[in-house]
């Protein structure tokens, strides 16, 4: 991999050597983040680091203004809402439990992270559906990453690509192929029977 920072396997005794290994670990973590790596280990490390910041109030989860009202409506309509994120389940719970909207964890029926599998692998979506006891074709998956949309669609899920400021741009083909939304309020979900 281009630019990867290796962590020494063998170390010698001494404080200087310990510092060299620590610096290699820090450099490797920074490389993973700058490369937008979604490794489970990195996400778990970030989750541990964020825990202290959330718990002492230095960090608050922020959402686009349409998100929480829409999720509340979906819940009131009897819909189940799950999170599947490259962020660890712990990080998800910190984000939603310590948000500018307060603790909104009760809005979610469950959380999934890359332990279930990569978000670009259709089998991950099949495993999620099996674990919640729902057919894949009865699930709507929202994402801002078209490779994830492809994997979910391959698993026979319904998909909408969320277009937000700061997201990667879409090609003309992607814009015409996917159902695009710019706000969660665009999704009307009838109550379950």
From TrEMBL:
From the UniProt annotation, give the residues forming the signal peptide: none
Give the Gene Ontology MF terms in alphabetical order. acireductone synthase activity; magnesium ion binding
Against Pfam families, the record matches this protein to:
Hydrolase
Q: Which UniProt keywords apply?
A: Amino-acid biosynthesis, Cytoplasm, Hydrolase, Magnesium, Metal-binding, Methionine biosynthesis, Nucleus
Gene Ontology biological-process entries: L-methionine salvage from methylthioadenosine
**Protein's UniProt name:** Enolase-phosphatase E1 isoform X2
Naturally occurring in which organism (per UniProt): Python bivittatus
| Gene name in the database record | ENOPH1
